[in-house]
Amino acid sequence: MAEAFIALGGNLGDVRATFDRAIARLCDGVDVQLTARSSDYRTPPWGITEQPAFVNAVIAVVTTLSPHELLARALDGERALGRDRAHAVHWGPRSIDIDLLAYNSAEMHDGDLTLPHPRLFERAFVLVPLAEIAPDRVIAGKRVRDALALVDRAGIERLPPR
Fold first, then answer.
1. Beta partners for residue 152, in sequence order
2. For 24-55, what is each residue's pLDDT tens digit?
3. Any idea where the domains of the chain sit in the sequence?
4. Of 2, 122, 127, 138, which has the most beta carbons under 10 Å away?
């Protein structure tokens, strides 16, 4: 079994309910088992700043799927929950965004998948929830808590449990 970290984000509709549905679709308890879920965080928009705030979270899973199979399952979940990446505005509003952040210690870069996620260490909206569930995890030679200390966390707010 491999360990993977997956980021969830969105800013349209009931994002937190969409997260619940996305996690249920992704984690079937057989091929993908949920091992940890961060709190949900309200975060400022990234890229295009004139849009609603986002909600972000990170989950940890163990899986028998390959990285490409796990990504395919995540993208199938996005489509089922209303995301159309082909027609979406890059960094624009979305109901759900699911990104594979890391898979064991795999490092890969092909046309479909880059691991670890190429902007993982630039994004506080990913590092804050990741550090909540895996502060001592080392990804690409960097400890998550150390990477978090290097980014601006302004505007990120932990949401209360629902």
1. none
2. 999 999 999 999 999 999 999 977 888 999 99
3. 2-158
4. 127
In CATH, 2-158 is 3.30.70.560: yes
Choose the catalytic residue: 94, 123, 136, 162: 94
Tell me if residue 99 is catalytic. Answer: yes
Give catalytic status of residue 94 as yes or no.
yes
The catalytic position among 40, 73, 99, 123 is: 99
Q: What SS3 string covers 38-76?
A: CCCEEECCCCCCCCCCEEEEEEEEEECCCHHHHHHHHHH
- Choose, from 40, 73, 97, 123, the residue flagged as catalytic: 97
**Catalytic status, residue 110:** no
Active site residue 146: no
| pTM: predicted TM-score of the whole model, two decimal places | 0.94
> What is the C-alpha separation between 107 and 57, in angstroms, rounded?
23
